Amino acid sequence: MNIITVVINLIKFKTILSFFCLFSIVNNNFAQFKPDRIQDSDPDTAWVSHNKSTPSFAAYQIYPTPARGKDTFGSFMIYLPEEYKNTNNRYPVIYYLHGGNGNQREGQWLMSEMDKAIAAKKMPPVIIVSAQALPIGWYCNANVGAKGVISGPVEDVLIKNLVPYIDTHYRTITKPAGRGLEGWSMGGFGAIRLAFKYPDLFGFTSSVAGALIDFQDEHNPQYLVNTFGPASGPDSDKSIEYFNAVHPRFYARKNAELIKKNVKIRLIVGDQDWLYNNNGKLITKIFSDYLDSLGIKHEYTVLKNVGHMVPIEFTNGTREYPIQFWVDAFKTSAIAQPVTPFNAATLIKPGDEVRYGSYLIRKIGDRVFQINDPGDKTTKGGGWGVDMYLVCGTQKALMIDLGNNYITGYEKDLLKPRKNATEELLSVIDGLAGKLPLEIAVTHMHPDHDGMTDAFIDRKVTFWQGKWLVDGSRFEDARMIPTVDADQSAHLLLLPVKVPGWNFVSLVKKFLYQKFHSVFHVHLSFPAELKECY
């Protein structure tokens, strides 16, 4: 009898010990993925995480958040690829959005997976930013003033403060083709809604077990109260109205055409997750079907035999993180690589020409050059090619026209982004104009030209455009006016410039006739302050 008792007690001890060891491993390594209040959580109003711990491949940073008021700050964890410190390249950025009751440290699972993939040459190098976005902030601006709301302007902080901070402090690709969002649970809700609301800012978005729910689906009412207001009672109708007004569905419908054109989308959910099947309600499938009804293409993947804690399975090796979405996203993002500086020494007399990268540069006058990109005849819009003209004056250089977009691409015309197009264009201009201040006369602007103007985003450049009447019927002023915003749809008439020994006006007229079928109806002249420079 004593032996049996000893054996039973020993079995009980081993069982308890095994459970305790398992609990310790899960709590230490994956605490950030637990759905409720956890030891690793930050306070509900913690814009700055006071836990500065990071894995060896990441760093802790703080940044100003003027969207919240003067002298306020937020924090984030950032991953830079190993090669970052040894190059001058620019890199795409993935913004990771943590789940409910999570924090910036949660993003280390994605950083770890990406770091391994980059080291194995499976993934192009990227920057990853894991934002501290309040434990229950839903990645929108809170319904301030409603009872129980303690969240704040999470959306404004991320969009108006964090993204610009990252772009100005790190070498990023500052265009939608260079920005993506990845989010888990509540972060999946945020990744989809921010990409859908700002399709001109983010080109890719991925929701992993995203909480793409209706208001009444949430199991814990407090998760709603913090951001939207009362979850029940007479005031809950206003909370539901606010929730619906910031839901990804709303922006999917509102911005459907822009989303179709600009954003690649991925939805991942496990077949054991309540977000897959909530008592018969197929939450993620319903959202996927809604996107289908709007004609918005997207990936929808159901992982077998996994519940809500998908990141744990990626981290512990139970299943492989599906990295191909990001490989495809950034393999055509025109990641900048060093280019050999353009040498203009062979352009001695008019008629001389030299090939540099994809550009053909011709000298066509005294200090006047044509920069030609023949384009891709196999594409719809690429067959037009690009003809740009650079006039190098004594005090300034004037660039005329920016043409079709051969930098970030334009899907509608089957134009794919071209690697190093930005660096090559800037190198040509630097090689011809030297250190002369650059001004650009934009002949016209359409969506397929945005990348050409974006090439100058980090330079102090004055753009010139025509001034139209309010009704857009004709020019109000026959002169060009300076602008800092070149992204306007307008066909502009170029202005005559006197260049010794060369009839610039005739060239411009011929150029406009041939390329844009334009007709001069008025005689234009440069403003005196600009004309004197050339």
Largest sheet: 8 strands, mixed
CATH architectural grouping of the largest domain: 3-Layer(aba) Sandwich
CATH superfamily of the largest domain: Alpha/Beta hydrolase fold, catalytic domain
> What does the average pLDDT come to?
77
- CATH fold descriptor of the largest domain: Rossmann fold
Instruction: Quickly give the structural class.
Output: alpha/beta
CATH class of the largest domain: Alpha Beta
Number of domains: 2
Would you report the number of β strands?
Answer: 16
- Helix count, DSSP H or I runs of 4 or more residues: 15
Strand order of the largest sheet: 1-2-4-3-5-6-7-8
Rg over CA atoms, rounded to whole Å, is 28 Å
Beta-strand level of the residues, as a percent range?
Answer: 15-25%
- Termini separation: 108 Å
Sequence stretches where pLDDT stays below 50 over 5 or more residues: 10-39, 466-534
Shape: elongated
Describe the structure.
With 534 residues, this protein is α/β, with parallel strands linked by helices. The protein folds into two domains: 46-330, Rossmann fold, CATH 3.40.50; 353-531, no CATH class. It contains 15 helices and 16 strands. Strand 14, helix 13 and strand 15 form a beta-alpha-beta unit. The chain is elongated and about 80 Å long.
Keywords, separated by commas or semicolons:
2 domains, alpha/beta, 16 strands, 18% strand, 30% helix, 8-stranded mixed sheet
